[in-house]
UniProtKB/TrEMBL annotation:
PANTHER family: PEPTIDYL-PROLYL CIS-TRANS ISOMERASE D, PERIPLASMIC CHAPERONE PPID. InterPro entries: PPIase_dom_sf (IPR046357), PPIase_PpiC (IPR000297), PpiD_chaperone (IPR052029), Trigger_fact/SurA_dom_sf (IPR027304). Residues 345-446 form the PpiC domain. The chain crosses the membrane at residues 12-32. It is found in: Cell inner membrane. This is Periplasmic chaperone PpiD. SUPFAM superfamilies: FKBP-like, Triger factor/SurA peptide-binding domain-like. Belongs to the PpiD chaperone family.
Length: 703
């Protein structure tokens, strides 16, 4: 164990992160929405997948596997917020195991022992390992680190060997998923007819005038919406009004805000500590003993930003001086003492674009060099460096525009560092730099700096005192004790001047109540312990106490009138307004006349280059039906009928249309369709198989 730990520390090996990453890959990176849940009858049952019951114990075991991987990676126990994410990953892993297992078996997909060896130590190392075993100076895969780690397993303890066996299983599972996805993705094909249609959609242009009449052109007072109207609309559009397990709650918040006395006490304490810090000769020890902040004593290397609350309040920072107290954006008070200012190891900042040459012969290297020289020339002629880096860079810096951050000379290979530190001004270096990793294009963004600081900081939180917390709790507890039902809840809140806050349609998996975070226990109470009309005990949240009343609870299925009222009212009202607008403009021959019918609300615009494949009408917004109708017109001067979009009514007149010209080859359009479809394949497969597996999720009862 000690050997493994030592190797991990020295090589930067972070194998543990692979487990979490692979679980994300295996589930497609999309957490299953909790909107499809059913109340279960078995108290030990957390869900069903493909007709198979998932017990609480099995789910907890899977959570522990994911949690173990997290701890291996981070070296710490996950927080409750992180545990929420880990539980989701564990649930998705269980879905994947059951949903895809039968598919693999029926297709005969396997990963052989020889293939697995190749994946972890052969010529085709899996991406998850390659991304973790990188040389920090180049951002490239370092095989030496992998060899060192694998050799160390012979002397490692059983826990580490078991952990590595788990990693190999994840690698194999991921490879099976890749094979399965690729099998379907590569079977996708677009016909010539589809390619031709894609070309037509992309290149057919219309010049069109259009009038837009928003629904607010008709006042709400002129439209009556009855319950009978709403019921008819809901019945006709049942798919729009599906609901998951939900509850309507109301609650009273007893805030734990610091009082004036609390603030005065903190100010008095930070003022006292400031004077003591000014007088002490042991800055670091004093700060670490008295500060509640994260960095009580820190060395700021060249290029590192000093604390914002220091630099915004002090123009000239002098050694030995004490500054503060200042209030921060985190509602804390902070005082700084500049212990020392000194010349540290020079550090500079640069960006680069790496063209890798590892494993290439001379001819291939020459081709890479020529490509790099071409890109360098493009940058010299105006191509944005960050854009070029994101397009051509072959290491981890590409996604951040090639930025290497601040670094010292010894942090990089000699050839790179010597050239970078030798320049006298910022900007692009006009030649390629060759290292053992390949050819680099380098842009210096900050010249070397040596100015370094050691700064002590004492930070105290401005929070509620125990007296303030106790007072808030006593008020909440007294209110809950006197409120045994909804009637008393409302009466007592009114009598004592407490505001009742509504939270309707709260999902069974919700973690917040409106703007109150970490309210999961309140939601669990509503779905597990409470009946309609019940008033809760006192719940403690981050900065408040809450007492809740359960007004109503709904099971998954079709929404009733009250649940659908708000959404249905908007739709029905807009339909009636659309009818009134259509009646008012009936018989009007020109767009100008139509606009004149609603002079204050309607707008008349021209779109000279409207694309057939677009779904947005300039000046209006999302309007696919209107665009479809426009391209259905045949002759110049023709007008559409009034078109009902979500935003209002549109009438358009075609001025001219420029059809797409035929081309000899539609392969590029066919390839584009095929590529787009292939990119969606993995997600669509996952969604389809989950639907067929009829996943039922009851975890809200337990977590």
């Amino acid at each position: 164990m000690a050997l493994i730990k030592k190797i991990r520390q020295r090589t930067g090996l972070a194998i543990g992160v692979i487990a979490v990453g692979l679980i994300f890959f295996l589930v497609g990176g999309d957490i299953l929405s909790p909107n499809s849940t059913l109340l279960g009858g078995n108290s030990n049952k957390v869900g069903e997948i493909a007709g198979e019951s998932i017990s609480y114990e099995e789910y907890v075991r899977k959570i522990e596997e994911v949690k173990s991987a997290f701890q291996q990676n981070t070296g710490r126990t996950p927080s409750e917020a992180e545990m929420y994410s880990l539980r989701e990953q564990a649930w998705q892993a269980l879905i994947v195991e059951r949903v895809f297992k039968n598919q693999y078996e029926e297709l005969g997909l396997t990963v052989s022992d020889k293939e697995l060896v190749d994946m972890v130590q052969g010529q085709n190392i899996v991406a998850e390992l390659r991304q973790q075993l990188v040389n920090p100076a180049t951002g490239e895969f370092d095989r030496t680190q992998l060899i060192t780690f694998l050799q160390s397993l012979d002397d490692a303890g059983p826990e580490q060997r078991a952990f590595w066996a788990q990693q190999e299983k994840l690698f194999a599972d991921a490879r099976l998923r890749i094979k399965y996805d690729n099998l379907l993705a590569t079977s996708d094909y677009a016909t010539k007819a589809e390619g031709k249609l894609q070309h037509k959609m992309a290149n057919t242009i219309a010049d069109v005038d259009h009038v837009f009449i928003p629904f607010y052109a008709i006042p709400d007072s002129e439209v009556e919406v009855t319950d009978a109207d709403l019921k008819a609309y809901i019945s006709k559009h049942q798919d729009k009004f599906k609901v998951s397990n939900a509850a309507d709650l109301e609650y009273v918040v007893f805030a734990m805000q610091p009082s004036g006395e609390d603030s005065a006490a903190v100010i008095s304490e930070i003022t006292k500590l400031t004077e003591e810090l000014r007088a002490t000769e042991t800055d670091s020890v004093f700060a670490m003993r008295n500060s509640e902040g994260a960095n009580p004593f820190k060395t700021y290397l060249p290029g590192e930003k000093l604390p914002e609350s220091l630099t915004t309040n002090v123009d000239e920072i002098e050694t030995g001086e004490t500054y503060g107290p200042f209030i921060t954006s985190r509602s804390t008070y902070v005082t700084y003492k500049v212990t020392s200012k000194f010349d540290g190891t020079p550090r500079m900042r640069a960006s680069h674009i790496l063209f890798g040459t590892n494993g290439l012969d001379d001819a291939a290297k020459a081709e890479v060099k020529a490509n790099a020289e071409g890109v360098l020339k493009d940058i010299q002629e105006g191509l944005n460096f960050a854009t070029a880096a994101s397009q051509y860079g072959q290491d981890g810096t590409a996604q951040r525009g090639g930025d290497l951050g601040w670094f010292a000379k010894e942090d990089f290979v000699a050839e790179f560092a010597d050239v970078s530190f030798a320049v006298k001004s910022t900007g692009l270096i006009g030649k390629l730099v060759e290292t053992e990793y390949g050819y680099h294009i380098i842009s210096v963004t900050e010249l070397p700096k040596t100015e370094s600081y050691k700064i002590a900081a004492i930070e105290l939180e401005l929070g509620p005192s125990d007296v303030t917390r106790n007072e808030a709790y006593r008020n909440a507890d007294s209110f809950a004790a006197k409120s045994s039902n909804s009637k008393e809840f409302k009466a007592n809140a009114e009598a004592e001047g407490y505001r009742i806050i509504q939270a309707n349609g709260v999902d069974a998996f919700a973690r917040n109540l409106n703007n109150q975070p970490n309210a999961r226990e309140v939601v669990r109470w509503a779905f597990n312990d409470a009946s309609e009309g019940n008033v809760s005990q006192v719940f403690e949240l981050d900065n408040s106490y809450i007492v809740a009343n359960l007004k109503a609870k709904y099971e998954e299925g079709q929404a009733n009138l009250e649940q659908a009222r708000t959404q249905a009212t908007i739709q029905v009202r807009n339909e009636k307004k659309a009818a009134k607008i259509a009646e008012k403009i009936k018989g009007l021959a020109t767009l100008e006349e139509i606009k004149a019918a609603f002079p204050d609300a309607a707008s008349l615009d021209n779109s000279p280059d409207l694309n057939m494949g677009s779904s947005v009408l300039p000046g209006v917004g999302f309007a696919p039906k209107a665009i479809g109708a426009i391209f259905g017109l045949k002759n110049s001067g023709e007008m559409t009928k009034p078109i009902h979009e979500d935003v209002g009514i549109i009438v358009a007149k075609l001025n001219s249309i420029t059809p797409a010209t035929d081309v000899a080859d539609y392969n590029s359009y066919q390839n584009q369709i095929t590529q787009n479809n292939s990119q969606r394949t993995a997600y669509m497969i996952m969604m389809a198989l989950e639907d067929l597996a009829d996943v039922k999720d009851y975890r809200y009862k337990f977590f």
